[in-house]
Amino acid sequence: MALDDQKSIFTFVGTRPDRPDGLDKVTGRARFGADAHAPGMLHGAILRSPHAHARIVKIDASKAEALKDVKAVVTRADFAEVPFEPGLEGEFWNVLENVMAGEKTLYDGHAVAAVAATSALAARDALKLIEVEYEVLPHVTDVDKAMEADAPVIREGAADYSVPEGMHPNVVRYHESGHGDVEAGFAEADLVVEDSFVTEATHQGYIEPHACLGSLGTDGKGELWCTTQGHWIAQKTCAALLGIETSQLRVTASEIGGGFGGKTTVFIEPVALALSRKANRPVKLVMNRSEVFRATGPTSSASMDIKIGMKKDGTITAAEGTFRLQGGAFPGAPGDMTAMCAFAPYNLTNVRQVGYDVMANRPKQAAYRAPGAPMGAFAVESVLDELCNQLGLDPVDMRLKNAAAEGSKASYGPTYERIGLVETLEAAKAHPHYSAPLKPGQGRGISCGFWFNHGGETSVSLALSEDGSAQVMVGTPDIGGSRASMALMAAEILGIPYENIRVTIADTASLGYNDVSHGSRVTYASGLATIKAAKHAVEKLCERAAAKWGIPVDAVKWENGCAVPSGPNAGDFDPLPLADITADMGATGGPISGHFEATPEGAGVSFGTHIVDAEVDPETGKTSVTRYTVIQDAGKAIHPTYVEGQYQGGAAQGIGWALNEEYIYGEDGRLQNSIFLDYRIPVASDLPMIDTVIVEVPNPGHPFGVRGVGETGIVPPLAAIANAVSNAAGVRMRQLPMSPPRILAALKDK
Amino acid sequence: MDYHSPASFAEASALAINATGITRFLAGGTDVLVQLRSELVTPDTLIDIKKINGVHDITRNSDGSWTLGVAATGAEMSDHPELGLDWPGVVEAMDLIGSTQVQGRATLTGNLCNGSPAADSVPAMVAAGVTVTITGPEGVRDMAVEDIPTGPGKTALAKGEVISAINIPARGENGGDAYLRFIPRTEMDIAVVGVGVNLRLDGDTITEARVSLGAVAPTVLLVDDAARAIIGTTLDDAALDALAAAASGACNPIDDKRGTIAFRTEVAGVLAKRTAKIAYARAKGEQA
Ligand SMILES: Cc1cc2nc3c(=O)[nH]c(=O)nc-3n(C[C@H](O)[C@H](O)[C@H](O)COP(=O)(O)OP(=O)(O)OC[C@H]3O[C@@H](n4cnc5c(N)ncnc54)[C@H](O)[C@@H]3O)c2cc1C
């Protein structure tokens, strides 16, 4: 798609109307995962392993099954497969192994059995009667230890072709990329800084725990209601795990109380369906917070080594990084993503990056906004800050000097199209925050960040009503105000008011396939498909007008919500409004609708620059973030308020990750802090007002120029906050979170 | 599970004496109900003491001392026009507990009897010299707050004993108290270290002091050495350093997810200084 095809003057796009789902959400009328009920419904509960690593010797559920209130007990035997049997391999097998343990339990909290009973209390009581005999095995939870020669092996044969000979079997994927000659580059440098960094695993911390209501008959037909970022992937996965046909399972996505990547897969849904099939009744399953922490998908933890060479004038001569990511007891830690994103903001002659995907006895990691990128940015941007400090360079000027731009060869391979990194750095430099004086005890930090963004399989359909209103059916659950954005984009094409458009998240039986709401793809891909579907409807509207006027259809154009005669016929007829055409559409050829299905490939990459001020109490090591500014390229902000919300959310979650959030495992391999009291996400009073600046450098791959904005915002915060804290404390912080005990210890060692 | 709502403390005590299994009194329930729902403690008997006459009363006695009913909530304490003028440290410690919602239920009694070494109001009560009245099968007796906790989750109360009132001494002249805690966040967190200080001045010189530490030992501590370090001083730098050293020296903490031994020990000293300065300023009648 060429830029000159792109629209740049808008009527609706760029305005800030209330979100269509707002009233339901503030009045409690919105129905979330746990709000579904069905006649005859049973309540499920899941028995979880107390051991980090153990062989399941025997499961005896006879006492639970004997209870009157208990209608079904399931274990692994109630699911589809035998390992690696055709039809269930690769990621499906991993997901099955994760939702219900097979021969071994692989982490504290791993599901081993489940019960359906007539009440939630009865189900929980029944769990206590299930006897499981375990043979406890040695475990490992730390990424570096999991790679050591004597580390317990989590699963033989999990590594793929990419892993070099001689690595521990827990290393399951390997990535290497880059260009140029790093050794030559380091030789040219005036200063080379080399350092190592560690980050702990964090959780997305969505407020709504996983919840679902599943119903599956012995005829292989079923229905599932669940809180998810993608109901088609839930449909496909559940069908595979239960051995039924995909189309026979209809999945409806509830309203979603946060996902951030953590709801892009299934955990309890296949279990509810298996229980339902066995009990022949609908089964509801709702996780509690402790289950969410122990047994859903936190981020990877990471251990990283960085080496960067720089000239006195700030030119980076070479950069090298090794990124080891632990992603739980399954392949999937995004070591490759970390490696590819780490140096992506810079135009480098010599760069080399290596990523490892390492298994350990922890829950299977899931995405958390730009999976893998924040850790790598923390390590790389910390070293850049150190180089600036040692060479006396301004951190924004240094970054401007090295910033990637259109035509730069990205560190991960391709050549960039039009991108907006330089614009974000220039906006940072011009922002009053950057020149505001700091008080004693405060420090300032800067970081850039990059994320790829994604297109993905997308279907949208749009139908016009007789009264001239429109309904848009999309398949991407609304996790960030996307219904508002879709309505604005449809309004822009149709030329009818925003309020006259209703956007619905269709169930899997009502629309073609849609990928998950992830990869910052929704406003980009569902938005593009909405625009195309609306244009499809507009073509038909023009046809009806042409027929009515008796002129060729190519002599009709669509303007401000009306069909208008053009060319030689211009002015011959009065403009015909949309509602006039739909009023008698039944008689002029039937219902008018539009649809679009594709896998759009033009998701533009996105960059951001963050400025953070922090103050450290030198006596207690406690950090307060005193000022925060997010500057990010949105391509085109369809609904600026929700773009700002994404920016602020990324910064808020980044503050938690940087300062206090962490998975803490004991010597016994058990998670120590599986409640919000001890897993410390920021509370409102921990956050300063987060300022935002929307930079708009249009994405050539979208008709309105949209770039995804959901993920880039969490890439710079860890580094920007760490740089601010390090500058305030006068000591480089190399481990996240920078909790007060760690800062105080670093101050003592200074 | 049996639920009772007796009309008197004698009746509450009798119910508790005759109960089998696990018994809990229900004040605000912000510990009991949370523990119940998370399956940490599932009581066999719940004895709700909120229906007893006068349990919400906050009364100033003729000698200037205070009597608080066992169900008086944090919000009721903060809203009281005079209690906080006499005992700002006790009121601010209670006010730190939880959110607005929790404040509407949580009580001093529950905070004390839950037996957490990190309970926020307890160091403030110990520093203030608060006692509790206990009704039991053998009648009524008073006990100092510092003697109630005996270990994490454990109290000196015998089976059938129920706290029936909280007694705060008269403030008297030239006195001030304060409580500070360290938490990694700004709100909704559990103390990693807590310090209560209560003192009295003659001119600029401290004549009486009580210093109490929370979250640094199996129970809240009353630290005599720390009090001695400031008695007879004007809270000059040397006195503050001696106070910090005594506070740190009294610590016997654990290494856990909430803080390391080294961190707790160090920060106990830092907070002791900061708390003492506030109490001192209050005793002088300054706003702090
Ligand atoms: C969200 C949240 C935040 C919190 N934040 C804090 C905090 O910051 N700091 C803090 O210290 N605590 C905190 N707590 C814990 C709790 O709120 C406090 O301990 C509170 O003071 C308990 O009071 P309660 O009246 O609710 O006690 P309850 O739950 O009713 O009772 C607690 C215990 O006291 C016993 N008990 C109650 N009354 C009597 C009596 N008359 N005689 C003998 N025993 C009795 C009960 O048997 C029980 O063992 C928090 C709790 C929540 C839910």
Automatic annotation (TrEMBL), chain A:
Record lineage: Bacteria, Pseudomonadati, Pseudomonadota, Alphaproteobacteria, Rhodobacterales
Organism: Ruegeria halocynthiae
Keywords, ordered alphabetically: Molybdenum, Oxidoreductase
A GO MF term: oxidoreductase activity
Listed SMART domains: Ald_Xan_dh_C
Official protein name in the record: Xanthine dehydrogenase, molybdenum binding subunit apoprotein
Domain of life (superkingdom): Bacteria
Residue ranges annotated for the Aldehyde oxidase/xanthine dehydrogenase a/b hammerhead domain, each copy included: 27-138
Oxidoreductase in keyword set: yes
Automatic annotation (TrEMBL), chain B:
Domain of life: Bacteria
Keyword annotations of the record: FAD, Flavoprotein, Oxidoreductase
Any one Gene Ontology molecular-function term assigned to this protein's record: oxidoreductase activity
Positions of the FAD-binding PCMH-type domain: 1-173
A Pfam entry, by short name: FAD_binding_5
Alphabetical list of PANTHER family matching this protein: XANTHINE DEHYDROGENASE SUBUNIT C-RELATED
Protein name: Carbon-monoxide dehydrogenase medium subunit
Organism: Ruegeria halocynthiae
